[in-house]
Amino acid sequence: MSVNTLRRLCLALLASTVLPSLANADQTLRIGYQKSSTLLTLLKARGSLEQRLRAEGIRVTWHEFPSGLPLLEALNLGNVDISADVADTVPVFTQAAGAKLTYFARETPSPTAQAILVPADSTLKTLADLKGKRVAVTKAAGSHYLLIQALAQAGLTFKDISPAYLIPADGRAAFENRKVDAWVTWDPYVASAQRQQNARILADGSELASYQRYYLAGSDYAKAHPEVLQQVYLALREAGTWTKAHPAQAARILGPLWGNLDSATVQQANARRSYDVQPVRPENLGEQQRIANAFYREGLLPKKVDASAVSLYEPVQK
To answer: Which residues form the Solute-binding protein family 3/N-terminal domain (predicted)?
Structure first.
């Protein structure tokens, strides 16, 4: 082997060590998402993420889930590699099940994007009026924590109501057919119920629950593919900025994907979401701990959870 050939091989080896490449033959990134996963839904619809990763030999597959808890259960089982945004409550439940999670991005608070809804002609006027009532809520969702906090503010607990744990589609049906007295949910379901069913907001998350949404990866995947998380993070930031700058265009894409919602409903929902994608810092986990403590006090978690016992991915800011 010549000196020049040996030098080229050494340089190639050094470059592959110091500058890891995304390129990985036949690598597939499996993304779990739900209908309220606005930014990744937009990336999927526009093909933006595939375009980013295709040149690096990475294929993307998409897997839809009805809500955040089954999505993170799939992440824990290794059936998906990363999850789209889930409400701040969902990782707490998954941690209680022993999941190894890595937070790689978050959307800053959107407290008014979830609410307790009642029919327009309901006699319920205050949070205290929920006592003895049947309330639909999705287990482990951000709305679940909102309900806990709202009841606490009124001097009530879950023992004072009859909770009906329903996924959003079933919650909407139960609410529309008057099978429940109230429905606690998030956008775009809130905006849709307001505009299509004339629902009234009894309370939203203001001063009760900040409602941050987190993007997570399985810890093994995050350790093996930090460069992929970097690309997803940058794509999410771009999508968030674009959505806020082009509300009508975003609504035209999202409306059909959200059950043929009209543009005004989608824009109303999106106006209440921050879509401000940022890194996850240790101090952001303070509310996660408060959420964990609240669920444990209510007997809804089987054990205490240390919300800081997770891994945090630090993206490169550009």
So the answer is: 28-257
